[in-house]
Design brief:
This protein is of the alpha/beta class. It is 46% helix and 17% strand. The strands form two sheets. A seven-stranded mixed β-sheet has the order 1-9-8-2-5-3-4, sandwiched between helices. A hairpin with a 6-residue loop joins strand 8 and strand 9. The relative contact order is 0.16.
C-alpha cells in the first residue's frame, strides 16, 4: 500500500483520503465515534452540527495523512521535501541550533508529522523518540524510511532516553511526539483543552537537565494538493519548570497552540483521555 500510494500525485492521494474519511464517517466507525467524543469534550461550546462537521473533516484529514505516507517514506527524501512550499519560524529554529545547547522539538499528531522529521533532518543531526510497534516487520521499514537522511531512532526505553540526553549534549535536535499517553509512572495529569489527560514529564526533565531550547513544529496541509507549510514556534515558558504539574500544563498548552491553527488536521481519533487519575480506564471510550 505504501508503494502504491507513493505513485499517486499528492492531489490524487488527498482525493483518496477524502473518500476514505467520508466513508468512515458515514459508516460511523470506531474512529468516527472516538473522534466525535473527543471533540465534544474539547470544544463544548460548538453546536451539534459544528461538532459533526469538524469530526467528519478530521477523519478526512487523518486519512489524507495515511495516503501521503507513501510519498513521504518511499520516494527519495529530496522529492518529499519539495512538498514544503514555505516555512514559518525558520529564524527561531536557526537561533536555537546556533545556541548549541540542543533543541527539543515537540511535534504533535497534527498535519503530516513525518514530513516534519525529514525537514529537521535537513537542518541538523536529529534523534527521534518512537514507540516500537507490535509488528516487527513494520518497525524495520519504519526505521529504514525515517533514518534515510541520517536520523537516529530512540525507543521509549531507558536506553532510548539516554540517547536523547547524549544528542542534546552534542547540540543536536531531539524530536518528541508530546501528545502520546505515557506510562502511568512517567506522567502527571494536566488539562488538554480543559480535560485532564495523562501527560509526559520527559520533556520537562530533559529540558531542565540539558538547558535545551524547546520548540514546537507541525506541517500544515494546504488546500488543493498545493503542499505543506512547516510552522515552528517557541514552546510555552514553563515547559521546563521543575514543578512537573506546571510543566505538563505548559506542554499541553503548547500543543493546543498548534492545534488551534488547524483543528481538523489533528488526530482526534486517538484515545487521549483513556486513563483516569485513579488508574482506571475512562468509560467514555467504552
Amino acid at each position: 500500500m505504501l508503494r502504491l500510494c507513493s505513485l499517486l500525485p499528492l492531489r490524487v492521494a488527498h482525493g483518496l483520503g477524502s473518500a476514505i474519511g467520508k466513508f468512515a464517517w458515514m459508516r460511523k466507525t470506531e474512529s468516527a465515534r472516538v473522534t466525535r467524543k473527543n471533540l465534544e469534550l474539547c470544544f463544548p461550546n460548538l453546536t451539534t452540527r459544528e461538532l459533526d462537521d469538524l469530526a467528519k473533516e478530521s477523519l478526512i484529514e487523518t486519512a489524507k495523512t495515511a495516503c501521503e505516507l507513501g510519498r513521504i517514506w518511499v520516494r527519495p527524501a529530496s522529492q518529499a521535501l519539495e512538498h514544503i512550499v514555505r516555512v514559518s519560524g525558520q529564524e527561531i529554529l536557526d537561533e536555537a541550533i546556533d545556541a548549541n545547547k540542543g533543541v527539543i522539538m515537540l511535534a504533535p499528531h497534527l498535519g503530516n508529522w513525518e514530513l516534519c522529521g525529514l525537514f529537521l533532518d535537513s537542518q541538523c543531526q536529529s534523534t527521534y523518540l518512537y514507540k516500537p510497534p507490535k509488528l516487527v516487520a513494520f518497525e524495520e521499514r519504519m526505521l529504514k524510511y525515517r533514518g534515510r537522511l541520517g536520523a537516529k531512532l530512540a525507543p521509549t526505553t531507558a536506553k532510548g532516553v539516554a540517547m536523547l540526553v547524549k544528542a542534546l549534549g552534542r547540540g543536536e535536535i531531539v524530536g518528541i511526539l508530546p501528545d502520546q499517553e505515557p506510562n502511568f509512572d512517567s506522567g502527571v495529569f494536566a488539562p488538554f483543552f480543559g480535560v485532564d489527560a495523562l501527560t509526559m514529564t520527559l520533556v520537562a526533565k530533559l529540558a531542565k537537565r540539558t538547558e535545551a531550547t524547546v520548540l514546537s513544529i507541525f506541517a500544515k496541509r494546504l488546500a488543493q494538493g498545493e503542499g505543506f507549510e512547516v510552522v515552528i514556534a517557541s514552546a510555552r515558558t514553563d515547559v521546563d519548570s521543575v514543578d512537573l504539574d506546571l510543566a505538563a500544563r505548559a506542554l499541553n498548552t503548547t500543543v493546543e497552540d498548534c492545534v488551534r491553527q488547524a483543528p481538523s488536521q489533528y488526530q482526534w481519533e486517538y484515545r487521549r483521555f483513556k486513563r483516569q487519575a485513579d488508574g482506571t480506564k475512562n468509560a467514555l471510550y467504552r
